[in-house]
Amino acid sequence: MSANWRGLLKVFCVPVWLAGFLLLAGDAGLAQAPQGKITWDQSRSVYNRLVRPKEAPATVNWDERITQLIKEEPGDTIITAVGDMIFNQKISDLPDPNRKGLFRIMQEADIGYGNLEFSINEHPELQRPFYNFRAPREFAWEVASIGINMVSMANNHALDFGPEGLKECLRALDLTSITHAGAGATLAAAHAPGTHRVQSRTTRFSLLSYMRYWTNKYRSADPNAPSLATIDPAMILVAKDGKVESVEGPLEGDVQAMEDDIVVARRHADLLMVSLHNHDVSHHRVYGIQNKTPANDEIMYRRAIDAGADMVLGSGPHVLRGIEIYKGKPIFFSLSDFIYQYRTPDKIPIDLIHQRDTELERPTNVSVWDRRDTPETMEGVLVRMTVNGDKLRKIQLIPIAIDDEGPLYGVPRLVTDQRAKEMFEKIQKLSEPYGTKITVKGWYAEVAL
Description:
Layout: H1 3-12, H2 16-25, E1 30-32, E2 38-40, H3 62-69, E3 77-86, H4 97-107, E4 111-116, E5 119-120, E6 134-135, H5 140-145, E7 150-152, H6 162-175, E8 179-181, E9 183-184, H7 187-190, E10 194-197, E11 204-212, E12 227-228, E13 230-231, E14 233-240, E15 243-250, H8 252-266, E16 271-278, H9 295-307, E17 311-315, E18 323-326, E19 329-332, E20 337-340, H10 350-356, E21 379-388, E22 391-402, E23 412-414, H11 417-431, E24 438-440, E25 445-447
Parallel strand pairs: 3-4, 3-20, 4-7, 5-6, 7-8, 11-13, 11-16, 16-17, 17-19
Antiparallel strand pairs: 1-2, 3-21, 9-12, 10-11, 14-15, 18-19, 21-22, 22-23, 22-25, 24-25
């Protein structure tokens, strides 16, 4: 192996199987940079090979719209919530009005929540899986810059860089004053709430975070080591029409542990949020678009409310799911994606992901270069909630779309009024089984409490 190849594999922390693939590939697909370093030829990647005409800019005064939206009454506390954030390149300074305005809504809020589905650490050599979801320590300030100051950490990428990577990520968040929950230096710490106080307010806002996965691979093996708060699967056999069927659902003991956490946290919190990162099945496209929560999984969301949670924030399926107002409290079964920079040319070659990723749909007679994520994956919603007198008074929904090609791949933006109308129709349809009423106000909507 040449020195250049050894250096390249070291920089990218390439797994053994991928190293073999690269050696077999030889020099195909590689370009020589002016500095003499080998780099990846990304000319045909989704970053550079655009397959759709550029969308004409909408004649919308986003600044004026948002100024009207964010008007407050005395005593109001504003919470914004978004879904999964896979994030590693700076976007807080983008000048586009439909992006700048989106971040403004979050920056103007008192609490900005999101699911942190990447690691912040300085140890690329600790990478475990194929996906390189990592940013350096100082990137925590970029997370704060877009308006995020509270994150859930119980998800299937929190340990991508092992226990040491997780500990360093928690430290970076602490130094940036970003409240976190769901992961900790011990199992007890992972089950403890993160609490945030808003300036000039006496209300205590707390967050608990849990991951429900379709296997128990993330269950803590050592309660004294870095751990995640998990709700693991259970399998039972049922007799139906003379046949025996296997039925899967969340483990009762883990749901009870969540309820105990909620009861304890409730004693010290005026408003308690619970995050559930739900992977009830694999993302493999054989399961289709996973926009409906299985009945057995709905149980844990409602039991969180029964135990004392004021709202449940769902993420994980990477698509939107319905909204339920249960006993007067909102359950967002999935907020979908928010920032989806999971293919970055300088970390993992984009086109290798297109070939290797079994989660991506690959129709017959379609080139690997033309494959894109499903439209449902590249849209989500920002929830804006108004709390006054320790009570939730208003829920507003702001739809967002995520670029799926070009240099801003994975970056969210506000959508056109026509796209907003289509998305609200989808959300309303997904929420119909729960009897939820959504009133469209043009570019945003309100959920009836």
